[in-house]
Amino acid sequence: MSADEHSKVGSLSAPQALTPSNTMSTSIPLPVPEPNADSRAYWAAAREGRLTVRQCLACGERHFMPRGQCPVCWSDALEWIDCSGFGTVYSLSIVHRAPTPDFAAITPYVTALVALEEGPRMYANIVGPGALESVIGDRVRVVFERRGEAGMQIPQFTRVAGQSGGSAA
Ligand SMILES: [Zn+2]
């Protein structure tokens, strides 16, 4: 890195600059997503704090991950829709062994398949208070975890307060 570059990003390199109190940000150097042609709009929305899925204009199917064609009818007539951010834990596992050294500082952590209110299911981590007590059926809401120095935000989920393990009747 040149001296010039360093002066430009210097303030962003300070951990406190990356951890505003209202985000789930960590200062741990976890992997940062690399958007491709299919996912660029998804990640751009996430940077704005919006969780989106694609909906097929031909058959109405909604899907996740972002793809260029409908997985049901193969139409490429797709639109983006904003999600409520709420969902339910469909399945989960607690990771006790870090997959790479980068993850050691946050292990153990919860990886879950979350059924969004809009229908599609997506993988994410359950983070925040009580995350390790998560169970199938928990109601969760999206939070955005900032990663890297370019403002990338990853949709994660946190348990909705005032519930215990899907027992709400
Ligand atoms: Zn379709």
Automatic annotation (TrEMBL):
Domain of life: Bacteria
Residues covered by the ChsH2 C-terminal OB-fold domain: 80-145
Biased composition range(s): Polar residues: 13-28
Domain ChsH2 rubredoxin-like zinc ribbon: 43-79
Region ranges (Disordered): 1-31
InterPro entries: ChsH2_C, ChsH2_Znr, NA-bd_OB-fold, Thioester_dehydratase-like
Pfam families: OB_ChsH2_C, zf-ChsH2
Protein name in UniProt: Zn-ribbon domain-containing OB-fold protein
Organism in which the protein naturally occurs: Ideonella azotifigens
Lineage, uppermost ranks: Bacteria, Pseudomonadati, Pseudomonadota, Betaproteobacteria, Burkholderiales
